[in-house]
Specification:
- With 260 residues, this protein is an all-alpha fold.
- The protein folds into 2 domains: 2-50, no CATH class; 54-255, no CATH class.
- Helices cover 77% and strands 0% of the residues.
- The chain has 13 helices and no strands.
- Helix 4 (57-70) runs parallel beside helix 7 (110-127), helix 4 packs parallel to helix 13 (237-255) and helix 12 runs antiparallel to helix 13.
Length: 260
């Protein structure tokens, strides 16, 4: 039976069948051929594996990230980060890192963070003279903060698989996420200093910071509401994901009016 399962998997992979479908088909055929169990177990296991309330948080956090990108939230986060670190050596790279930190704390997705912030920061960094390889690597590494900083989708998946508290996993991701962010910022500074890459703007005044912060305050408050509600026991991570979607839509559609 093991040999049959292995051969079926290899055959399906070779003809280009998606991995998830290959696993399901190979298992079903092996069960049927070996009369190991009634085939009814296949749909039962399919339903049982996705019938999870915590798993519902994943599509909602992804949708929240998409709404943030189209609703102008990500651009305002970039502007705010620019006033904080944009004037420093390697400022544009640091802006990408800090903005990704903010965005990751809302969307929980590394892919969404990379796409949303990279669409703005990668062209800007290339225009400023940053090497293409470093620009791509910086944004990819910054986007990966979405894997560590809560509310992280991979942490949700791990918590479900290991049967541990999602809230505890989120707490465990805070310090490593901050450490990775600081490491990226330090490397960006020394890389820019070695390559003569100055800051993108003149040093911002406190009024500039406050002005940009006022425009981005609704976006900055979002992770506070989400994580504060989870840690305060007000709602579950899944309910927090739904609130993130509603909040993102409300800001983009009603307040910023950038979602048609």
């Amino acid at each position: 039976m093991a040999l049959l399962l292995f051969l079926l998997l290899i055959s399906l992979f070779i003809i280009g069948v998606p991995i998830a479908l290959s696993l399901g088909l190979a298992s079903a055929i092996t069960i049927w051929h070996g009369d190991l169990s009634p085939l009814l177990i296949v749909p039962q296991q399919l339903i049982a594996s996705v019938n999870s309330f915590p798993l519902m948080a994943i599509p909602f956090f992804i949708l929240a990230g998409s709404l943030m990108q189209s609703g102008g939230i990500s651009r305002r986060l970039v502007d705010f980060s620019n006033t904080l670190v944009g004037s420093m050596t390697g400022g544009l790279a640091m802006v990408a890192i800090v903005t990704s930190l903010f965005f990751a704390a809302i969307s929980g997705s590394g892919a969404a963070t990379t796409a949303a912030i990279g669409a703005i920061m990668i062209p800007a960094m290339l225009a400023k003279g940053y090497p293409g390889g470093y620009t791509a690597a910086n944004q990819a590494a910054s986007g990966a903060l979405g894997v560590i900083i809560p509310p992280s989708i991979p942490l949700i998946l791990y918590a479900i698989a290991a049967n541990v508290s999602v809230g505890d996993m989120f707490i465990a991701g805070i310090l490593p996420g901050i450490l990775v962010t600081l490491t990226l910022l330090i490397f960006a500074y020394f890389f820019a200093k070695a390559n003569g890459l100055a800051g993108s703007i003149e040093k911002s005044s406190w009024m500039d910071v406050l002005r940009a912060g006022r425009k981005a305050i609704l976006a900055i408050l979002m992770p506070v509401i989400i994580l504060g509600g989870i840690y305060g026991g007000i709602f579950t991570p899944t309910e927090a994901a739904v609130i993130a979607v509603a909040y993102s839509f409300l800001i983009g559609f009603v307040i910023y009016r950038e979602i048609s």
